[in-house]
Amino acid sequence: ERDDVLRYWMEYFLPVLKSLEHQFINWNDKGKVVRGVAQVWAETGEQPIVLVTHDECTFHSNDGQTHQWVKEGSQPLHKTDLGKGIMLSGFLTLVTPLQALEIIEIGGDCWWNNEKLVNQVLNYVIPIFELQYPGCQALFLFDNAPSHAAQPTDALHAQAMNLGPGGETPIMRDSTNFAIDDFTIPSSLRGKPCGLKLLLQEWGLWHHGLRLKCLNLSSCNPNLPTGCCAWTLLSLQPDFQNQRSKLEEVINNQGHLALLYPKFHCELNWIEYYWCAAKWFTQKHCNYSLPAL
């Protein structure tokens, strides 16, 4: 297991779930509520939480049954390619799907991306959740995929900064963990990226000989007291560590919670069982056309 994945497991993912566990609404294996809204409020005095997981899945028009009876010496007749397809973006609680599926046809210029997912969550999923579970807070769980973990355009991202001031680097949001004294900033640099060196000097973290980045990722050592490079040293500061994805920020701003599964562990996502059943159904009833799919 990669070190960064283990750290995320042990230092963030599991502690967050553990800290919220006492607020979870629970169902048994027959879908009956065993710990409901009223009970959670009575026991904790806090808002009940419903787990909502997400994933995408693709279906193809020619993805039918692969076994058939044929006469001896005959060749089976079936399509040789998967054909046209659709992609579904769906959300599932522990007992039922939210009726907020987004469906796009695969191919052409139509691509599923972070912007489309954020739009689905903001304009469809959250309103439907709040109607279905009034008074509850959602904890949305997403696979740790690049399209889900994409950060806002003004996110605090050390690797996007130059060592010196200016240059073609994105304008980032203000830091929240350190006081900003505008009088110390030259007028020529105000409103522009200040550079890693100046920023670390202001925070008392710069030392002579600190380089911008390590020669390769494998040589980075975040455990060094003085930092192995400027990128790593800055990325370990609280405000950079607390930077969340655009998806998480949008959900938090709506009064709900979001969490990414650990990387490379899609088996944790129980929606996989739902997609498996859907695949079985479409394969069994396949008639090799996109409209029927």
Automatic annotation (TrEMBL):
<dbReference type="InterPro" id="IPR036397">
    <property type="entry name" value="RNaseH_sf"/>
</dbReference>
<dbReference type="GO" id="GO:0003676">
    <property type="term" value="F:nucleic acid binding"/>
</dbReference>
<protein>
    <recommendedName>
        <fullName>Tc1-like transposase DDE domain-containing protein</fullName>
    </recommendedName>
</protein>
